[in-house]
Amino acid sequence: MHRAHILTKLQTLLRSPRLLHVRRNHALEHATIHILSQRYPQKAFVGRSDTRGFYIYGDLTSEQLWEAVQEALARLQRGDDRLAIHPNCGTNLIIAGFLGGTASYLTLASERDSSWQARLERLPWAILGTIMALLAAQPLGRAAQKHLTTEADMDSLSVTAIHRLHAGSRVVHRVITSL
Question: What's the number of domains the chain is made of?
Answer without folding.
Answer: 2
